[in-house]
User: What shape does this take?
Amino acid sequence: MGLGFLHRHRGSTPYLLLAPGMLFLVVFFLVPLGFLAYQSLESGSIDFGYAFTWAWDNYSSAISGYGTQFKRSFVYAGIATAIALLVSYPVAYWIAFRGGRWKNLLLLCIVAPFFVTYLIRTLAWQTILSDNGLVVRTLGSLHLLGVLGQDGHILATGTAVVAGITYNFLPFMALPLYVSLEQIDHTLIEAAEDLYASKLTAFFRVTFPLSLPGVVAGTLLTFIPAAGDFINAQLLGSTTNHMIGNVINSKYNELIDYPAAAAMSFILMAIILALVLIYARAVGSEKLTG
Amino acid sequence: MTSIAAEGRRTRPNALSRAWAFVLRHVLTVYSLLFFLYLMLPIAVVIVFSFNHPAGRFNYTWRGFTWDNWLNWNAVPGIQSAITLSLEIALFASIVATALGTLIALALVRYGFRGRGTTNLIIFLPLSTPEIVLGASLATLFLHSASYGLSIPFGFWTILIAHIMFCISFAVVTVKARLIGFDRHLEEAAMDLGANEWTTFVKVTLPLIAPAILAALLLCFAISVDDFVVTYFNAGNQVTFPIFVWGAARVATPPQINVIGTAIFGIAVTLMLVNVFLQNRRAKQG
Amino acid sequence: MTDQITRRVFLRRAAASGSILTVPGLLAACGGGKSSPGATSDTTSHQLAKTLHFSNWTLYIDNVKGGGHPSLEQFQKKYGVHVDYREDINDNPTFFSKIEPDLERGQSTGRDIIVMTDNSRYPALLVQKGWVEKLDKSAIPNIKNLVPQQRNPSWDPNREHSLPWQSGFTGIGWNEKLTDPVTSMGDLLGNKKLKGKVGLLTEFADTLALVMAYNGDDPSHVTDQTFNKAMNTIQKAVDSGQIRQFYGNDYASALSSGDLVATMAWSGDIVQLQADNSHLKWQLPVDGGDIWTDNMLIPKGGNVYTASVYMNFVYEPKIAAEIEDYVNYVCPVLGAKEALVKKDPAIANNPLIFPTKQMLDNAHVMDPTAVNNEKYQTAWQNLTSA
Assistant: This one.
């Protein structure tokens, strides 16, 4: 099959190129979602088997039974995203504007820690936040432990979970921020300053708005995976901090209650999609594509 | 700074603004350094404790320094096969995903066709689906595969399929970015000089997008080695390295886990340093 | 001797053992997941397989530094069978969910022996669904060494499908450096000084049995009323912040690092943990603890003869004594104590390993119907995972 073939069938070239990859995605991404939908409407148990019964009550019992966990997931993910944004923005700015020829090296410094396996990093936080560790002792002597922690410990509280989520998703926030900040045309800022804007005003009226595509991308890339996470809650939190991911995991892998887990997964996806759409509308959809 | 701009510039920057600029300049630097320290904190703990000599099952308090864990990195039963499996899967998955992804990227950037919006959507969706949903839905597919005559047991192949699936989107995005900025004139020049399409593709296009393909390969490899949630749902009996860590964390955390973690970190950093060094060299050479 | 099996070899073997069963298994799967009558199981051949695939809990067999297991090596030498020993069971539900898809489809799980706890629903479930093989008792003459109290469990009355591996007590472990002795569930759940540093177990039967005993109810006969009472007691402790978390095996790391001051704990664990932290102590609660048994089972498709021969091997008092010397849980084999007295009298006389009648009387066995009750299990999961 030489290029002549592609010449003659010019119109079909893109489809041929797309076919293998898209077929793979359709079969192993879309179809499974279909199966999951089918399973979410089944009822039954491991002892007696499952049957498709249009069991919409899987959905209603998921919401009524685990509404707290749903809410908690979005609250934790939201707080973590907000903190990640506030914390990473200055650094992204610093690298983009002051990095000079060290830009790539500095980016490496941000990304490198995240080459260590996710689980190992989170376990390290278990050690760092341990009751007899430096962090807890310092916070205790600063009398902040009552505020941030609970009964003298940070682990097994919501604070630890949010801290873990924030840390683990930092590069997903920092890198998009950097990319859009780096692309800003500096002459625009200079023009603003020429027009008597102070540095601060220039930042808020020119730089920040131009970096919004990065902010949007970063918040989405952080919030979405964070909402479905369960590892931080499992390793750093307690039962009262469990997120919907923990419930789905336990339903699927321990209780073997596939229909319930499937229904919860769809509700999670639906809420995320809704939030993303609202967000996109609020920010203006051009910002999404930059 | 052009001379026009210099003229139009305010002649007397007020003191507040100057002070602010000074503070900003240094606060930002200090802050960024603190940020990097914060990022490295858990990594430092991992590295330090890889040299720990724990008394019992757990590696939480420092007892003493030892080279033992590094010398006997595979003394923990199961750790060697876990890391081997992770590397194998990552290798195959990244190659296949990058190949498929590059083809898709070429189609998306170079051709107009119907269904472009849908294609973009299908590629974007896996990136915006929580891993737990990806894992559970794939597992459901494999569980139900028996009733369609295709019994796929959980194991190596299901893990591989899962990894290829979520890596394709990353590969597409990476290669696409490079293709968009690609100068078609080079290809046209080659063809004007008599090269046919195939030769042009091989001798001009491919070398120019090679960095992106390499980047996609590395990105997919890194994502695959680190993946836990999707793998956990679809691994059956097989144990990849993250699954091994998860199991170990509940019973006994041998220091060898830290050893492997540090090794992965070290190799990754070295590779990226080399890459940065080469890029700077290339930039200097113009 | 390493227990490495390359993935390729393993796949080939799994495929070989699975291919015998796949076609009838597929038919069975289409029929709705019941056990496949057509599946051929290796019950009649008296030929030893080349490899025995044994999945067990961690630190549950004799081991030496560097990863070797002397008792397994002796078995290998005596019978020429290589043991592929995998410590991949961390808790009952997760392990079951790993093998369930294969069992459901009538495919081999790749294992000849698995070990599951009788106070979870899984041994009974496996037997009920026909997902375990019958033992080849002709190959297990040493079954006569099984301690009398283990001979007729309700879920396997004639020991057709299982043999105990180890038993264990659930009690309370505490760090004597950080607290006074914690010897009752009341103390664990109510003592304000321990707030936020107390752990309970995720295992349904363990935690509920101890709480019910504390409430004055009988764990071996559970009613809705006693169940709800126990759940309320626990919920109160969770809401007040007394309970830090529900733990699986991982209570051990929190206890030894000091994040937990007192927790429900398994008897054998404490002995091992004292190497990490010499201040750890353990006791059965004064109101009563519980006793459970981990059982060896042969999942469908496993090699019955080889597995049975191995079971017979570990019921040899001498071998049981060797294993007990390391594992420090409760031994189910008669004669092991006598075999140990000379070699390691401390272990032989340790009531945690060879318990007195008084201890056995103070330890309850959880009502199996409660363990199998779907409603209770869901309520429990909501409490601990949600």
Observations:
- DSSP finds 16 helices and ten strands in chain C.
- Chain C has two domains: 7-167+294-336, 168-291+361-385.
- Chain C touches chain B through 42 residues (CB under 8 Å).
